[in-house]
């Protein structure tokens, strides 16, 4: 079906569907399952120390013989060490966020790693393409976790028009309709995080997954705009307290201290009232936990029906 797709050809994958590299829950279990199902699974390095990341990569290598990637937050205190691990392990793909990966490109390219940064603006996309990246992920504000302020619908076609490398669309994509829409906007593939959170292979706490399944269209809010690092999460006790602190113009250092450890509190300890439940706006579309292989099959098999609707509309 996707034999001539530029992303599939570039990365040697069956389907141009990435699993978002989510910190704490984008582990080897999930990444290997997505890769085995034909997509690109991605380990979320977050603030992982290098030894922990190496262990995750080696587990993924045992569980899949397909390409997989690692997402690296360039603001991580371990970024240099983590990049060296990725080079040593010859990971097929690196996606990056929160910065410019240019200084790491020579070493990554030398071992054949494809580098695909996440961008939230046309200007950043153009700058990173000039530095030599292989593709870009244009991520709209509908995404969960750290976000920009431009919607996917507006951002993707502008990035597509501005660069000469493949563009992967992300943000607000939860089913075959979203994939088709992204392709119509000019994207060569999609990245989906929220959809894979409610998979059997995702290690997120049961409470975390259940809260996502209960979410409605307006269940998420954005915190941290005053810090310059906005984050989309499900509204809960923590977000309300955070909003009160922001309204009082609390210094950024105190806000960061207040938020420290909140993601792990939710993902691993299951405290979804005091923890940070990072998730995208498509959470309101999800109502069942399924194996990754089933999710992927539904995403791909549903494309034909969506295409038929588009064709019928154009007649």
UniProtKB/TrEMBL annotation:
Name of this protein = Probable nitronate monooxygenase
Q: List the CDD domains hit by this protein, alphabetically.
A: NPD_like (cd04730)
Q: Does the keyword Flavoprotein apply?
A: yes
Report keywords, A-Z. Dioxygenase, Flavoprotein, FMN, Oxidoreductase
Origin organism is Anaerovibrio lipolyticus
Instruction: Describe the task this protein carries out.
Output: Nitronate monooxygenase that uses molecular oxygen to catalyze the oxidative denitrification of alkyl nitronates. Acts on propionate 3-nitronate (P3N), the presumed physiological substrate. Probably functions in the detoxification of P3N, a metabolic poison produced by plants and fungi as a defense mechanism.
* Gene Ontology terms, MF aspect: dioxygenase activity; nitronate monooxygenase activity
Q: Supply the InterPro entries for this chain.
A: Aldolase_TIM, Enoyl_ACP_red-II_put, NMO
The keyword NADP is assigned to this record:
no
SUPFAM superfamilies of this UniProt entry? Inosine monophosphate dehydrogenase (IMPDH)
Taxonomy, top ranks, is: Bacteria, Bacillati, Bacillota, Negativicutes, Selenomonadales
């Amino acid at each position: 079906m996707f034999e001539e797709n530029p992303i599939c050809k570039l990365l040697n994958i069956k389907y141009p569907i990435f699993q978002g590299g989510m910190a704490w829950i984008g582990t080897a279990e999930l990444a290997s399952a997505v890769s085995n199902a034909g997509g690109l699974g991605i380990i979320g390095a977050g603030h992982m120390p290098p030894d922990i990341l190496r262990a995750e990569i080696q587990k993924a290598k045992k569980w899949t013989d397909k390409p997989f990637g690692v997402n690296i937050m360039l603001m991580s205190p371990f970024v240099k060490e983590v990049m060296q691990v990725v080079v040593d392990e010859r990971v097929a793909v690196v996606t990056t966020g929160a910065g410019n990966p240019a200084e790491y490109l020579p070493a990554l390219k030398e071992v054949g790693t494809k580098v695909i940064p996440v961008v939230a603006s046309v200007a950043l996309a153009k700058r990173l393409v000039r530095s030599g990246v292989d593709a870009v992920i244009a991520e709209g504000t509908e995404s969960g976790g750290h976000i920009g302020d431009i919607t996917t619908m507006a951002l993707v076609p502008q990035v597509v028009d501005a660069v000469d490398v493949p563009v992967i669309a992300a943000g607000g994509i939860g089913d075959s309709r979203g994939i088709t829409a992204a392709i119509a906007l000019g994207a060569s593939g999609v990245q989906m995080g929220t959809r894979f959170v409610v998979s059997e292979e995702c290690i997120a706490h049961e409470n975390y997954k259940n809260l996502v399944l209960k979410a409605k269209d307006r269940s998420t809010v954005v915190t941290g705009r005053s810090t310059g690092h906005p984050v989309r999460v499900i509204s809960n006790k923590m977000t309300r307290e955070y909003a009160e602190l922001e309204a009082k113009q609390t210094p950024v250092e105190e806000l960061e201290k207040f938020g420290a450890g909140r993601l792990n509190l939710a993902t691993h300890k299951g405290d979804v009232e005091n923890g940070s439940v990072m998730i995208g706006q498509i959470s309101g579309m999800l109502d069942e936990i399924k194996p990754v292989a089933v999710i992927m099959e539904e995403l791909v098999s549903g494309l034909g029906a969506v295409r038929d609707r588009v064709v019928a509309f154009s007649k």
